[in-house]
Each structure stands twice: as structure tokens, then as C-alpha cells.
Design brief:
Length: about 200
């Protein structure tokens, strides 16, 4: 299991140790993971590259960069379960988009549990668990939840504004349709979400 927390923690030690604490991966694998999260050029510019010793808690990196280091570490670990706890709450939109894209690309065959407030990060999930004051309010596919106009999730979407709400509704429907419509390969019908099981929590 890999966890990417809201407050990313880096160890006092080299970049190599932060990416690969148990020395299980080659330099090529480390650089490839950094390339996946667009940090390769940043690390290449460090005085010692992979051997550069990071400041305590990685304070010489921005919050977004620390999140990306944690994501690169998760890519290397290849665990089947990934927990993302408000990982994009304190990062800029570009880093948010990069993290979301990387998760969708690299963890497509994993179970991803996301705890989030940003609706755009969870709107295309397989399932959303909506909590209200710590109690379960609803649990279903996003598009299905949005059919309940009296539900909390629908109201949360509407509170984002007319334009953003319309975009979220469309994204939820598009994701729902892509999972519901079987794809045909070599004459055989295959489920669109056969390798993707994501349970996400919207708070």
C-alpha cells in the first residue's frame, strides 16, 4: 500500500533514499519515475543529482514538488492500493493536473482511494462515498448520485457555479458512459473498467 498525504513528508537524506529507501531499484528506474512526474530536469540540476541531500522534511522543495516526489516513490513501489489524502489541496492547478493524469495513467490497474474536497479530482471515479458530519450520506457512481437533485453531492456540484457545474455533470456522464458501454476487441466484448476499480471519498 502506498500513501500520498496532504502534507508530503520527505526524509532527511539523499534524493535516492527518498525515492528508494531500500535500494531496490536501478538508477534508470529512478530517473524514469522522476520523468513520469516531470521532476527529472529539476533533480538533474541539483549539485549531486540523486545523491543530493535534502533539507529536513524536504523544505528546499515546494509543496507541489514534494508531492511529486511522493508520487514518484509510489510509482516505483508498484503497490496495488494507493491512498491519496487531499494530495492536491495545497498545490497549484498545473501540479494538480499532472498528479491526476499520472494517477490515471500509472495506477489504472490499482485500487485508488482518494479523500478530497476538489470535485474535479473525483468526478470520474468509479464510486464516490459522500460523508456528512462523519456519517455516510450516499455511495454510488458520480453520474448516478447527480440524478438526485436533493442530494448533498448534487448540491455541492451546483455550488461550484453554473459553468463549472455543467462541466462536472458532463464529465460524470462521460465517465459513466465509458464504463457502461462495452468495448469490442477481436470480436469480444470487454468491460471498459475491467482493470480500474477506484473508490473515492468526497467530504
Amino acid at each position: 500500500m502506498s500513501i500520498i498525504p496532504q502534507d508530503p513528508m520527505l526524509f532527511t537524506g539523499s534524493m535516492r533514499k527518498n525515492l528508494d529507501p531500500f535500494n531496490q531499484h536501478s538508477d534508470e528506474e529512478l530517473w524514469n519515475a522522476l520523468r513520469e512526474v516531470q521532476l527529472k530536469s529539476v533533480v538533474e540540476e541539483l549539485p549531486g543529482k540523486l545523491e543530493t541531500v535534502l533539507a529536513e522534511s524536504g523544505s528546499n522543495f515546494s509543496v507541489g514538488q514534494r508531492q511529486l516526489v511522493c508520487l514518484a516513490r509510489a510509482i516505483l513501489r508498484r503497490n496495488r492500493i494507493l491512498i491519496i489524502d487531499e494530495a492536491t489541496a495545497n498545490v497549484d492547478p498545473r501540479t494538480d493536473e499532472l498528479i491526476q493524469k499520472t494517477i490515471r495513467d500509472k495506477f489504472r490497474e490499482c485500487t485508488v482511494l482518494t479523500i478530497a474536497h476538489r470535485l474535479n479530482t473525483i468526478i470520474d471515479s468509479d464510486r464516490i462515498l459522500v460523508l456528512d458530519a462523519g456519517k455516510i450520506h450516499a455511495y454510488d457512481e458520480p453520474h448516478v448520485l447527480l440524478q438526485d437533485t436533493k442530494g448533498i453531492f448534487y448540491k455541492m456540484v451546483q455550488q461550484t457555479g453554473k459553468q463549472e457545474a455543467a462541466a462536472l455533470l458532463e464529465a460524470a456522464k462521460r465517465a459513466y458512459d465509458s464504463r457502461s458501454r462495452p468495448s469490442v476487441a477481436n470480436g469480444h466484448a470487454e468491460s471498459a473498467d475491467v482493470n480500474l476499480v477506484i473508490f473515492e471519498t468526497a467530504l
